[in-house]
Design brief:
Elements: E1 9-15, H1 19-35, E2 42-46, H2 50-56, H3 62-70, E3 73-78, H4 94-103, E4 108-114, H5 127-130, E5 134-140, E6 152-155, E7 161-164, H6 171-186, E8 191-196, H7 202-218, E9 223-228, H8 229-238, E10 245-248, H9 250-263, E11 273-275, E12 286-288, H10 307-319, H11 324-339, H12 357-371
Bound molecules: 3-isopropylmalic acid and magnesium ion.
3-isopropylmalic acid binds at residues 94, 97-98, 254, 293.
Amino acid sequence: MTRGGAGRKLLVLAGDGIGPEIMRQAMRVIEFFDRRRVAGFEVDEGLVGGAAYDASGVPLTDETLAHALASDAVLFGAVGGPKWDALPFELRPERGILRLRKEMDLFANLRPAVVFDALAEASSLKTELVAGLDLMIVRELTGGIYFGAPRGVETLADGSRRGINTEVYSESEIERVARVAFDLARKRRGRVCEVDKANVMESGGLWREVTQRVCETDYRDVELSFMYADNCAMQLVRNPKQFDVIVTSNLFGDILSDCAAMLTGSLGMLPSASLGAPGAAGERNALYEPVHGSAPDIAGKDVANPLACILSFAMMLRYSFDMAEEAELVENAVRGALAAGVRTGDIAQPNTARVSTRAMGDAVLHELETAV
Ligand code: IPM
Ligand code: MG
């Protein structure tokens, strides 16, 4: 939804680890847009994850959640780190993002894996296998084994313990995320691959049935195929260009998207959008975050790659504010910085120069300056 200037309310939650340093570079892009009057945003900042726990004893306060719900979009960094690993499950930093996803009802997680030409050689796969790759994983984000009940660890009569998590999906949960995948496919190459373990899981059988029905009823123009998740993991590294849109459950999407991310050269390159259902006026809850985590091993060293975070802002422009042109401006600036040979450590070839997080931000800003 396009709105005038300061009408765009943005909540920035940088989080932990490398979150704050990559977010700083994304903020510079947002400030540039403001300064050059490309687009104005009303930006507020809040705490999430371990940072929120340190400040208030919980990984996400009710106030921050309310703030997120009242914003047009949330830009999220990363959460977690060894400092909080020993906390009880409910207080762990990860619960912060999981609660945001659940309470904002962000059921559709879009994780594009796009290989920039300049980076095709940075992939661990052969260049010709990944050059030109453009696939989209649509991961269900508020259901499945991440949230299913019963869950927990129980003590049995003999004193031994048993851990339980439950994969559970209703038809409507499958249907709504399938529709998101079919709609996206229509704007792309018209193909959806539904991924599950229907050979061993009843819920996977239901995923097949429901996606097939939705396709036959409303998306006859889209080509639907099915694949088992283990085979999909293998196919992603064997021949990733066979895929257009992949739609899958929360857990399989988590795993397969890390795998797809690496095809692009680095986990540090991948943005994501988590979307709720659109309302009557087209507005929807939305959160944008890099797929990589908080990377505590490199946090605070100014070496992290800020591009996934910057590209997440581009996705926000496209999906929350209907600003495709401005999104392309950001994406082209990233493409330009890469084409100019600027590389953070994660995407550098051996024996080539590595720049800092800040310098990568400089390079993107420089490209924007020349473009606007
Ligand atoms: C992701 C992450 C999260 C997930 C963690 C941080 C809870 O791995 O977004 O892929 O498992 O969903
Ligand atoms: Mg993950």
